[in-house]
Amino acid sequence: MTELAELKGRLLEDPETRAEYEAMEGEYAIARELIAARTRAGLSQAQVAERMGTSQSTIARLESGRALPSLRTLDRYARATGSRTVVRLEAGR
């Protein structure tokens, strides 16, 4: 196991930390999808930013999960990476 994975495992042993982490799962899922789309397109953050008419730091913020993008921003990002936006609601656990 990597050092990062070990650290994450230790941190998530704390119930409060685990609850906060799980509460942010939606934001992390969006960030993973954004990174996957950019990687599939073979683009850098700077290239996506240029295609969207924004800055590389904005793309980094979106991909970090620290910012929750609007549907319009997701659509612009999708077009910039040659992807399409799909929204799906699933039954709760």
TrEMBL record:
Family annotation (Pfam families): HTH_3 (PF01381)
Gene3D superfamilies according to UniProt: lambda repressor-like DNA-binding domains
Membrane-spanning residues: none
Domain HTH cro/C1-type, first and last residues per copy: 34-89
InterPro entries, alphabetized: Cro/C1-type_HTH (IPR001387), Lambda_DNA-bd_dom_sf (IPR010982)
SUPFAM superfamilies the UniProt entry points to: lambda repressor-like DNA-binding domains (SSF47413)
Protein name per the record: Helix-turn-helix transcriptional regulator
Source organism per UniProt: Thioalkalicoccus limnaeus
Lineage: Bacteria, Pseudomonadati, Pseudomonadota, Gammaproteobacteria, Chromatiales
